[in-house]
């Protein structure tokens, strides 16, 4: 059976293929999953996404399965412990930012009810559908990611520049950037109009 047509950025790594085929671009409305993705996208800064995917299981264990209430209470001693964990990216600034972001995340939940409600306002409650074609470069940022980044920074989030925010928006399904020739494009496109409530 021939391999299905995928987006051009997918490598031959089975982990990357599985991520593309099952997760990337699927709308996420679960706050814990959104928090995990936000922290992992920040950890990716300066690195490849496959590096983070290979460390995701270790991150989940190290970060209490991305429970924002637990991460928000991490002490300097806990950060020092994380710095010795070879399973994750051992960058002091990124680790401190995860704690800062957990605290900011909880404040957003308190203000909006859920992080999901806050987040999806930036795309008017439904995924953007740019209908990308082969040979068309994916943007590093958009006006929507610029707006999200600016607002997150205002709320004291760290490692949330416009490019990181756009990668986050792609991964969380806020934008469907699958190529129209990719086998996932129609699968991800079908539920778009009823994904947000």
Protein architecture, described:
It is globular, with a radius of gyration of 17 Å. The chain is an all-alpha fold and about 200 residues long. It starts with 13 loop residues before the first helix and ends with a helix. It contains 11 helices and no strands. α2 crosses α3 and α8 (about 145-155) packs across α9. Helices cover about 55% and strands about 0% of the residues. It has helices at about 15-20, 30-45, 50-60, 70, 75-85, 90-110, 115-120, 145-155, 160-170, 185-190, 190-195. The longest helix is centred in the middle third of the chain and has 21 residues, at about 90-110. It has one domain: Endonuclease III, domain 1 (Orthogonal Bundle).
Quick summary of this structure?
This protein has about 200 residues and is mainly alpha-helical. The protein has helices at about 15-20, 30-45, 50-60, 70, 75-85, 90-110, 115-120, 145-155, 160-170, 185-190, 190-195. Helix 2 (about 30-45) crosses helix 3 (about 50-60) and helix 2 (about 30-45) crosses helix 9.
